[in-house]
Amino acid sequence: MPHLAIYRKYRPATFEDLLGQETIVKILKEEAKQDRLSHAYIFSGPRGTGKTTSARLIAKIANCEKRASDQKFREKGEPCNDCATCRAIDEGKALDVIEIDGASNRGVDEIRNLKESIRTSPSASRFKVYIIDEAHMLTKDAWNALLKTLEEPPAYVVIILATTEIEKVPATISSRAQKFYFKLVPREKIVQKLARIAKEEDVKISPEALDLIADYAEGSFRDSESLLDQMVSFGDKTVDVEEIEKAVGKISFDKIDAFAEMLVKGDVSGALAFVAEVADGGFNLSQFLRDVIQHLRRILVLRVSPQMEEIFKKEMMAEHLAKLIAQSKNLKPAHIALLKTLINAYGEMRYSQFPRIPLEVAIVEGLEKIKS
Ligand SMILES: Nc1ncnc2c1ncn2[C@@H]1O[C@H](COP(=O)(O)OP(=O)(O)OP(=O)(O)O)[C@@H](O)[C@H]1O
Ligand SMILES: [Mg+2]
Ligand SMILES: [Zn+2]
Fold first, then answer.
1. Sign of the CA dihedral 336, 338, 341, 343?
2. 197 contacts 231 by C-beta, under 8 angstroms
3. For residue 51, how far is its CA from the centre of ligand 2 (angstroms)?
4. Which of 112, 223, 258, 260 is the Cys-Cys partner for 217 at CB 3.0 to 4.6 Å?
5. Residue 80 C-alpha to ligand 3 middle, in angstroms?
6. 15 is a domain residue
């Protein structure tokens, strides 16, 4: 099967499809409807959450050929995705949409030429749109060149800076731009999109497996889509939990849950055997312990504050949450000490030549207290 490059194929073509960034979408659509784009935008936030995607959407909004003729355009605040310009932007071929990678050497030169480039009006479209990606990598000279432009931007210019590190953008620049902060996306939105992609690509994958991918991606759409892509490119169109576990070295919820059950019950030999299996399976023990600690922390929190259920609902599958709630009923004060012991072990593990030993010692020590 050919490589899918899922994250490119499924890049949102409309604001409607940009998930988990509702506030941003609302404002940008409003600007589109009213035909009041800013001259400068700064999109900041974690990787794979929609910054570059939104920049391209603005480029389309600015230059879509239907904007003048189509009555509906103003009502929707979306690009048509059908005219020659929209399509050229999708293909990265639009003459008046200039994408600059701030991290590359070429990017530095391009910024240096920016001042001249900006002076010439757009060749084919209404706006000249500059998308400067990885803007945190820009040099002092580049920022100065940009500042000059932002002080007196020609009417036909829109500049969009995208960065994961907003604190590296000079205040002189950021105060002249409209700023949007992209958020990490809730797990359920990621699962929802992955499920849609899997369906369209005819990939068989269980909810459990989708959940593990979303968990691994930690709020980044791109990471989740790349991982799904990687799993599919192994060959067949069936992806199971074990394959994902092996690929990312992270263990799925059900197994963490089974291990936590042993801890809660005080089953020392069961827990030690489990650790041996995890270690021999080539999994990352730190990652494993981190997941276990998170699991126990959730149980503990649910025990003392049932209202937290509402928050956890957004972070995990309903069936998983039900299991945590059931486990929380068996929690005793001694389990708090166990959790602390495990957290200490986690700190020690990261600097140890033998990461398995602090974990084993913590299990023996922590479960001793539970039995007595
Ligand atoms: N909010 C979102 N809704 C739906 N899909 C998204 C969203 N954000 C990202 N994606 C998916 O992830 C891919 C990468 O997104 P994008 O390039 O916009 O990320 P980014 O925020 O610019 O990340 P980086 O900081 O790494 O450049 C997109 O092609 C799309 O498939
Ligand atoms: Mg980007
Ligand atoms: Zn269009």
1. negative
2. no
3. 5
4. 223
5. 4
6. no
